[in-house]
Amino acid sequence: MSIRGIDQFDVAGKVVFVRSDLNVPLEAGQITDDGRIRASVPTIENLRSRGARVVILAHLGRPKGEPDAKNSLAPAATRLGEILKCEVPLASDVCGDSAATVIGHLNDGEVAMLENVRFDPRETSKATDQRRELASEWAKLGDLYVSDGFGVVHRDQASVTELAAALPHAAGLLVKAEVEVFAKVLGQPDRPYVVVLGGSKVSDKLKVIENLISNVDRLIIGGGMCFTFLAALGKSVGSSLLETEQIENVKNILQTAKTVGVEIILPVDVVIADKFAADANTQIVSVDDIPDGWMGLDIGPKTIDIFQAKLGDAKTIVWNGPMGVFEMAAFATGTKAVAEAMTKNSGMTVVGGGDSAAAVRLLKVDESKFSHISTGGGASLEFLEGKSLPGISVLEDN
Ligand code: ADP
Ligand code: MG
Q1: So which residues are the signal peptide here (predicted)?
Q2: Pairing with 373, which of 176, 177, 269, 317 sits 20 to 30 Å away (CA)?
């Protein structure tokens, strides 16, 4: 099975649909972070420079299957036009008269956008025939399909799966890069292979652990989920995040790790706080001494040393989930230390997870020093869980 890249298409004079992820944050109609738009540019530029007539499909926010001015793609079309230094006309509908007119007026090398695909209820319909119907309306207006929105490839949606099935298709540069990275880390990573997991809940990451445990050499666990592990080892965790109903699962994981010879590395000390707040009173304590009424909100300094040492000789590192409540400066040290240890590692370093990627940006860690920062939080998690993603499977051809 292989996935075609855009270079394998002759695109000159063709109408090429590109499904991008332009779901940018807006405040009062203004884009507050245009990262996703900038990330979509290389594929669009590539196609344009080769004479394609590029038609962008994207969603923004969570409209309820009908037009909704506050989720219009207009700010994204304007911003994209500024970056590309050309007009990017926006059709006023998803696949109606305006879309047909805008596409009909495109010349080779020009770019247009259709309105938010989620303004049409068929985009996210549970009924396959509904999604197929919308896709076939688009397919009549174009020649080729390029999947470039990694943030949506785990979704069964008309602009992601059905349209890909209806037209000759390829992966855009973003999706191609993501697929190659995950294939490598899930297949035959260079060793030692270390996975760092954190974030809030074990229950969110259980499938990831189960899928990776037979392939990793070391599993480092921090963040809120470490407290369920510590509780499984009989420690009291005060009022830290604890999922009591997961303790049995965690005991099983610890047992499996022992059986298959995977080292699980847990914190030895933590930063505790007397409330969940930026101005809480804090202390650093051993994981054996967490007092009642206090909660662990970051890993401690001894733990940072251990984690850094365990990352030092790794040849592949995958990181998913912050080590602490990095949104508050007082609890961001552990997350920043792990991120920086990755930037100093010369092996393959991959960040997967929406909040982990956000932490890298917020904590001003040099993004260029990672091998790969995934652009799709949910999609990267499902990849790590070993699921097959519908928007990727549909691109595979023999
Ligand atoms: P990702 O999106 O990278 O997969 P998650 O969504 O699983 O990560 O988790 C991110 C959240 O976990 C962050 O909002 C962070 O504040 C929270 N978190 C990390 N450590 C703790 C902790 N010790 N207690 C409570 N929340 C935590
Ligand atoms: Mg998250």
Answers
A1: none
A2: 269
Q: Which domain holds residue 126?
A: 6-176
Q: What is the pTM of this model?
A: 0.90
**Spatial strand order in the sheet of 53-57:** 111-113, 53-57, 15-19, 144-147, 169-171
Q: Amino acid letter at 108?
A: D
pLDDT in tens, 164-212: 999 999 999 999 999 999 999 999 999 999 999 999 999 999 999 999 9
Looking at the structure, tell me whether residues 16 and 99 fall in a common domain: yes
- 12 and 159 inside one domain: yes
Residues 154 and 228 in one domain: no
Residues involved in catalysis: 36, 201, 354, 378
For a ligand 1 pocket test, name from 355, 373, 374, 380 the mutation site with the most ligand atoms within 8 angstroms of its C-beta: 355
We report the CATH number of the domain holding residue 331 as: 3.40.50.1260
Whether the predicted pLDDT of 162 surpasses 90 = yes
Pocket of ligand 1 (CB under 6 A): 198-200, 204, 223-224, 241, 296-297, 320-322, 324-325, 327, 353-356, 377
